Amino acid sequence: GWGEKCVEAVVSTQSTGAIFRYDGLSVSQTENFLRPETIESLFVMYRVTRDPVYREWGWNIFQAFERVTRTCFGYSTVQDVTNVNTALLDKMESFYLAETLKYFYLLFEDDFSVYSFDQIVLNTEAHPLPIIKDYKGYY
């Protein structure tokens, strides 16, 4: 299905940061900024379905990050995910540590009470906000 094609493209191009067009998954932006959206999606799909394939895909992506983007000082933006011999840029976006790694952790956390969807909502920065069920006030 579509998810398998996306993950295959991510792992084969060593990227979760590439921007793919929907016409056969061609790459329209070749940089990999270590963005969190793919891992976030895998986390949500795993929590909703409990299908282990989402963890398998996440593990493949994590291994690709470790293999390609890890440096002695952290992790690096990849200049061109379509080129196996691409340069690593001297840049690591803060969201890699703040969001991407958080979603990797949550994807592989076995205790579903950690960030339970019944108790919290994650904002766009992956910060947990409690669900207040008995709120009687108005904004």
Q: Summarize this, please?
A:
The strands form four sheets. Strands 1-2 form a two-stranded antiparallel ribbon.
Q: What do these coordinates show?
A:
With 139 residues, the chain is an alpha+beta fold. It has helices at 2-12, 37-49, 53-69, 94-108, and strands spanning 19-20, 27-29, 70-71, 74-75, 77-78, 88-89, 120-122, 128-130. A two-stranded antiparallel ribbon has the order 1-2. Strands 3-4 form a two-stranded antiparallel sheet. Strand 3 and strand 4 (74-75) form a beta hairpin. The longest helix is centred in the middle third of the chain and has 17 residues, at 53-69. It is globular and about 55 Å long. Mean pLDDT is 83; it is low at 14-22.
What attributes characterize this protein structure?
139 residues, two-stranded antiparallel ribbon, 4 helices, globular, 14% strand
Average pLDDT confidence is: 83
Tell me what portion of residues adopts beta-strand conformation: 5-15%
Helix content: 40-55%
Sum up the overall morphology in one term. globular
Total of helices: 4
Distance between the termini: 43 Å
SSE series? HEEHHEEEEHEE
Q: Within the largest sheet, what's the order of strands?
A: 1-2
Counted beta strands = 8
Low confidence ranges? 14-22
Radius of gyration computed on alpha carbons: 17 Å
Class computed from helices, strands and strand pairing: alpha+beta
Largest sheet: 2 strands, antiparallel
